[in-house]
Amino acid sequence: MTIRSLFFASYRDLAGTGELVLTLSASSTVADLVAQLRASSRTLALLPAAPAVAVNMTYAPLETALRDGDEVAFIPPVAGG
Amino acid sequence: MATPSDGAVLLFWGVVRNQNEGREVNGLEYEAYAEMAEAKLRGIVTEAAQRWGVGEIAVVHRVGKLNVGEASVGIAVAAPHREDAYEASRYVIEELKRRVPIWKREHYLDGPSAWLGGAVPEPEVPA
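Output (structure tokens, whole complex):
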């Protein structure tokens, strides 16, 4: 399946980009995506093992099953205001 | 903003300060996942309005580079009574800081800028 990953703030610095599109095997979870990303580059290896994520703009646990075309936003600790 | 039945109108400004934890700050740079941030803010405003029966709540948050003294967030609440206005306003700013996808990079006089840490939002749905 194809998954769109979004990176913001400090995580965008690690990814070197705000967006990556990856292909994952069927029945992958967010945790699988995180593992694939952390293995993909020296800097992304610094992405936390259990980052907060939003799947299609809803905060979701790492065990969440992904579907083709889902958007996974990687959310650094938030600091608004 | 206020309707004739509102006896209290409360305005909160969050303003960029010149120092944080002892370091001289000369500006902040805000970034947001705008579409999601707006949706989360609307949800927080709805929660506050229902919980405290306020008349009207407006929230604005700026992004980009802000200088010391500039407002980054504004929250206006109109309510029949002041107690509801104060509590609703406090709820909105606390929830904004807890779960709205906005980040800030602090710029210092002495050294490179740095993204500030903050709150880790909780999952909204079970696995």
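Helices of chain B lie at 34-52, 82-99.
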